[in-house]
Specification:
Layout: E1 15-16, H1 19-34, E2 39-40, E3 51-52, E4 57-61, H2 66-75, H3 82-98, H4 100-109, H5 111-123, E5 126-129, E6 132-141, E7 144-149, E8 153-155, E9 162-164, H6 167-175, E10 178-180, E11 183-185, H7 188-202, H8 209-221, H9 224-238, H10 242-250, H11 257-262
Helix pairs in contact: 3-5, 4-5, 7-8, 7-9, 9-10
Length: about 270
């Protein structure tokens, strides 16, 4: 996919959308809302549809609404990048040629598993991880990229896997979501918890500047009741390490969280 000159920065991905793209984004949100799709834009929603601080627009879709949300996006002209499918096929072919006898035996002995493996590799969408299967769907409409996911899940700092959070965290995300300017966004505690997990796990402990800035803003804006609920969310994610994680957040010591977690005996 080609991007217009000046649209991306190597140090910090940021997308600015033109008027046509902004209207397309608004229509997508309008369709999701009118169809009563349960979704949340977990981060980067503050300046939509004008711009996003990341390279794409992220959605967490309730599992019961996921297929409907994908169909709505397709109807609005958002389609997966075909080249990624051909790359998946090519990689499977290369791997099969390197071990032809084993590949043939695998197909003969476990045809169902072989079919599922091909579909998953080609689409790049379904992965069995901690607490079940997470489905990702990435699609494009010109310079707009949307990323739909049916569960909250983050990379493990101890292995290459990815794990879903406690289902109660997801339940709260949908329960406390708010419709602001036509976009369903998380409450302050839920957004802050998501950004902390993104920074600690997906960003390997290195919080980008705009993550840290947004975390500070969210924490400052929370009421005491919201801070209390935020602590409860932390306990579901970090277990007995929740208190020292909270203290790092209070002190804006975001880049220290992961290293301390790895040395914390109760996590």
């Amino acid at each position: 996919m080609l991007f217009r000159k000046g649209r991306r920065s190597s140090s910090k991905l940021k997308m600015n959308y033109n008027t046509t793209e902004q209207n397309r984004i608004r229509l997508l949100f309008d369709d999701l809302n009118s169809s009563e799709i349960e979704y949340v834009v977990p981060r980067g929603h503050q300046q939509l549809p004008e711009r996003t601080p990341g390279g794409d627009i992220d959605f967490i879709i309730h599992p019961d609404s996921f297929d409907s949300a994908v169909n709505i996006a397709k109807e609005r002209g958002f389609l997966p990048k075909k080249s990624s499918q051909w790359w998946g096929i090519a990689q499977l072919g290369i791997k099969g040629l390197s071990r032809p006898r084993a590949t043939v035996q695998y197909v003969i002995n476990t045809p169902k598993k072989a079919k599922e493996h091909v579909i998953a590799r080609v689409s790049g969408s379904n992965r069995s991880i901690g607490r079940g299967t997470v489905t990702d769907w990435r699609a494009y409409s010109d310079d707009i990229m949307v990323h739909l996911r049916n569960h909250l899940a983050y990379k493990s700092p101890w292995n290459s896997g990815e794990y879903r959070v406690d289902p109660l965290v997801e339940e709260q995300l949908f329960k406390h979501r708010q419709l602001v300017d036509g976009i369903s966004i998380p409450s302050l505690p839920d957004e802050l918890a998501h950004l902390i997990c993104r920074g600690v796990f997906d960003k390997e402990g290195e919080f980008p500047e705009y993550y840290a800035s947004r975390c500070n803003t969210l924490f400052e804006q929370m009421s005491e009741a919201e801070k209390s609920r935020f602590k409860e969310i932390l306990s579901l994610i970090f277990f007995d390490a929740d208190q020292f994680v909270f203290e790092h957040i209070v002190n804006s010591e975001y880049n220290m969280i992961l290293s301390d977690l790895k040395s914390y005996s109760n996590y």
